[in-house]
Every structure is written in C-alpha cells, then in structure tokens.
Amino acid sequence: MFNDILKSFGINASENDIQAFGSGLINHTYKLNGNGRAYILQQINTTVFTNPDNIVNNLALVKEYLSQNNPDYLFVAPLKTTSGDFMVQSADGKYYRLFPFISGSHTVNFLQNEKEAYEAAIQFGRFTHLLNDFDIDKLKYTLSDFHNLKLRFDQFKAASQNAEPGKLEQASAEIKEVYNHFQILQTYNQVVANNEIPLRTIHHDTKINNVLFDDNQTALCLVDLDTVMPGYYLSDVGDMMRTYLSPANEEETDLDKIHIRESFFRAIYKGYMSEMGGILTETEKQLFIFSGRLMIYMQGLRFLTDFLNNDVYYGAQYPGHNLTRAKNQLRLLTQYVNAEPAFKLLIAGVNQELLADANQK
Ligand code: GN1
Ligand code: MG
Q1: pLDDT at 315
Q2: How many Cβ atoms from other residues are within 10 Å of residue 26's Cβ?
Q3: CA torsion sign, 125 to 126 to 128 to 129?
Q4: What is the C-alpha separation between 74 and 233, in angstroms, rounded?
Q5: Residue 217 contacts residue 271 (beta carbons within 8 Å)
Q6: Which end of the chain is more exposed for a tag (fewer CB within 10 A), N or C?
Q7: Atom 15 (ligand 1): residue with closest C-alpha?
Q8: How much distance in Å is there from the Cα of 236 to the middle of ligand 2?
Q9: Using DSSP, how many helices (H) and how many strands (E) does the chain show?
Q10: How far apart are CA 335 and CA 161, in angstroms?
Q11: Neighbours of ion ligand 2 (CB under 5 A)
C-alpha cells in the first residue's frame, strides 16, 4: 500500500517488511525493515495538523541551527524525497514522512526507574537549552493554542453546553471537579496576561515514548517533533510530571493504582535543571511545581471535553473511554496537589546538590 510513497524516497516497498509501530494517539506510524536498513514511516494526521508545511518549516530550521551550532547533537529530522522534499502526499491526499530508525534504540511505555525519568528530563531540558539563542520568531505554530488552558477551558464549557443530557449526567462529578480546580486557570491567566515568563522552543509532548533509549537506559534523542514550536517551559516539565510520576498511566481504569512517586519528581527536577537551571528566570523557577498542576488539569479537561464531544478527537476503544481517562487525570491531579509540600523539600535538597556540584567544577 505504500509503494508510491516509498518510491518517492527511492525505496522499493516490496523489499521491506512494514509493520505498525508505536502507541501515539494522533499520527499513524510504521516501521520498515529491509536490506539491512530500518526506517520509520509516519502519516501525519491532517485533521489535527491542518498545515503540515508548518511542521516541515520548523524542523528544517531547527535542524539547520543545531547542525551549525551543535553538530554532535542527535536530531532526528525527516529524510528528503528524491526531489528534495521533507514530505510526500499520497494519491488519496495523505501526507507521509520518512525518518531514519535510530539503530540500537527502543522506546519505553512505562518508566521502570528514576534513571529513565532523569535521562528524559535531561533530553528535554537540553533541547530547549541548545535552542536558547535560536530566533523563535522564525517558528510557526503547528497547532495554534495547543497548550492554551483558557482556550481548553472554553472548549470544555462549549462542549458541556452542547452535550447530550445522558453524557452530562454521566460526567456530572467530573464536571464539578473541574470547576473546583478553577484556581489553576486563574494562575495560568495571570501568568499569560502579565507576560510573566518567556516563550522558548518547546517540544510539547514529553511522554516517555517520545524519548529513544539504548540498552543501558541512556536516552539517545527525542522523537515526535511535530509540536516543536514556541511555548512555555511549563508545557514540557508539566507533561513529564503528568506522565512519569505515577506507575499507572492515563489509560489505567483502576484509579487506586494511581499514585505519586516522589523520587521520580526529584529525578525530573534534577535532570531538567542540570540543563536549564542557569537559563530559567526566577519567575519560571517559581512555577516549576505549578507546571504539573497545569498540564494534568489540561489533559483532564481535554479528555472530558472529548467525552462530551462524542470522542471526535482522541477516539474511544470502549464506551466512556475518554470519561475514564478524564477521571484518571483528575485523580492524578488530586494526588499531585497532595504531594506538593514534599516536592518543595525535594527541590531544596536538589538545589543544594546542584550548587555543590557547581562549586566542585
Ligand atoms: C496526543 O499522539 P500522542 O499520543 O503523542 C496529544 C497530546 C496528549 C496525548 C495524550 C497533537 O499525543 O497532546 O497529551 O495524546 N497530541 C496532540 O495521550 O493532540
Ligand atoms: Mg507520541
């Protein structure tokens, strides 16, 4: 089925074994194996990414900047077609990209230990660090208002006004809970309105399966770069909190399995700050813990909104799937808020360690 697409990249489909790959919710991904070489082929979901040229633009610019300034940095950019394009359109109008498969790499779906969290946090911090002097005005928004909490809240309100009565009833406890956490939206609005923190080059999807690891649990590089665009650092750190702290992920239906592993918070803080500690402003640092509230709340809102909107965005594998995901995220949020006093102590401890390390150098 991929004959013409692969031909554009000079690859013969019949010489390759092609298998569905990965666990992303938005794009369709395949792995190709043949002639001793492996690739990742990905179809862009253009219902979500309505202007895939923006993705191409951003990745080309970032690649050029990094190859000039940090030639050793492993940036997994899409490969060019034989006619020099980074993307190809199939006869039925779908867009595909091809990436090299990074040999010796694998993805992780559940974090097993703190080292993986630490390694991933270093990678996301390093990415934003290395692009600190890159001119973000050159970047396009591949998804506008992607992590705009105010907009997500407005979308939630609109969905709850239009939802079927049965759905409103099913979700009544979660809808109420969303309003109970209204303060998160207020803090976010204040940060944005007062221009309190700068925009930086941010990955915007820091789930652990967007980091490639080698067999020694060392992180090799970042993948899933379609949402690389200007944003607040809160997005990346907050999404790590959302997805690394609990041993049970957003798909878990037994909510009692959701709990916060404080040692993983410590690992995220230490890893991220080892790269970004010297760059973040004081105000940004003050919001480190808030980032988790922000992103967990946002994801809860997004799942709940999608439930009310009949699963148009995320899809559903069983009835009520997105409501269960929303419940999961709201449970995580409660646990997260309860753990915040412990996080503060951990931050103080790590800051002392980082200071001692710096003094030794
Ligand atoms: C989507 O496609 P995937 O699984 O990498 C979503 C993220 C959500 C995530 C929740 C473009 O990411 O924002 O956090 O699902 N990406 C988009 O699992 O909406
Ligand atoms: Mg992904």
Answers
A1: 95
A2: 18
A3: positive
A4: 21
A5: no
A6: C
A7: 25
A8: 13
A9: 12, 9
A10: 29
A11: 24, 210, 224
Query: Residue 276 is encoded by which pair of tokens?
Result: 């970004």
Q: How far is residue 356's CA from residue 361's CA, in Å, rounded to a whole number?
A: 9
CA distance 205 to 207: 6
Q: How far is the CA of 85 from the centre of ligand 1 (A)?
A: 26
Spans of all domains in the chain: 3-100, 114-360
- Which residues make beta-bridge pairs with 29? 42
Return the CATH architecture of domain 114-360. Answer: Alpha-Beta Complex (3.90)
Instruction: Tell me the CA–centroid distance for residue 313 and ligand 1, in Å.
Output: 10
DSSP H/E element including 202 = strand 200-202
CB-based contacts of 168, cutoff 8 Å, min separation 6 = 160, 175, 308
Q: List, chain by chain if needed, residues with CB within 6 Å of any ligand 1 atom.
A: 24-26, 48, 205, 224, 227, 250, 299
The amino acid at 154: D
Distance between CA atoms of residues 338 and 327, nearest Å = 17
Best mutation site among 23, 25, 324 for ligand 1, i.e. most ligand atoms within 8 A of its Cβ? 25
- Return the half-sphere exposure (C-beta side, CA atoms, 13 A cut-off) of residue 200: 27
Helix (H) or strand (E) holding 284: helix 282-286
The confidence score (pLDDT) of residue 36 equals 84
- pLDDT for 359 equals 86
Looking at the domain covering 3-100, what would its CATH class be? alpha beta
Q: Are 9 and 81 in contact (CB under 8 A)?
A: yes
| pLDDT averages per 10-residue partition of the chain, 361 residues | 90 89 81 90 91 94 97 95 93 91 93 97 98 98 97 98 97 98 98 94 96 96 95 98 97 98 98 97 98 98 98 96 98 98 97 87 76
Query: What pLDDT score was predicted for residue 156?
Result: 98
pTM over cut 0.90: yes
Taking the CB of residue 34, how many other CB atoms lie within 10 A of it? Answer: 16
* Closest by CA position to 303, among listed 338, 258, 253, 265: 253
The angle formed by the CA atoms of residues 102, 241 and 321, to the nearest 5 degrees, is 85
Helices (H), 137-287: 149-162, 165-170, 172-180, 182-193, 233-244, 262-276, 282-286
Query: Both tokens of residue 282?
Result: 């004081």
